[in-house]
C-alpha cells in the first residue's frame, strides 16, 4: 500500500490546480470565417467551402418582464438602423431593440452531396435458373 506524506499530497494538489488554471485560460479564437457558432452556444463547428448566411428574424424581447408578464412587440424581422460597422447597425429600425433580441437563423449554402449523373457503362446480368 503506497504511503503519501503531506508534502507529496500538497505537490499533487498544486499540480492539479495548475492544470485546471491552464485549462481555464482563454484560448485563441479561430478565424471566424471558417467556423460557425450555433445559436445555442454549443461547440463551434468547422465548415468547408460553404457560404454562411445569417438572418435575424422575429424579435423576442419581453417588454412586460419587469411586471412579471409576457408581451412581445410583433416585430417580424430585424432591419438595421445604420450602416455595417457602426453602432446603430446593431439596433432594429422597426422595434428599436438590439439585434441580440432577434432570433438568429444560420443557413449554409451547401453544394450537392453527389453528382447523380453516372458515366458508368457497366451492366449487371441476371441469371436465369
From TrEMBL:
Q: Which GO terms describe its molecular function?
A: zinc ion binding
Which InterPro entries does the record associate with it?
A: ZF_HD_homeobox_Cys/His_dimer
Region (Disordered) location:
16-47
Q: Which residues cross the membrane?
A: none
Alphabetical UniProt keywords: Metal-binding, Zinc, Zinc-finger
List the biased-composition ranges (Polar residues).
30-42
User: Which residues constitute the signal peptide according to the record?
Assistant: none
> What PROSITE patterns has UniProt attached to this entry?
ZF_HD_DIMER
Q: State the protein's name.
A: ZF-HD dimerization-type domain-containing protein
Q: Which organism was this protein described from?
A: Dendrobium thyrsiflorum (Pinecone-like raceme dendrobium)
- What phylogenetic lineage does the species belong to? Eukaryota, Viridiplantae, Streptophyta, Embryophyta, Tracheophyta
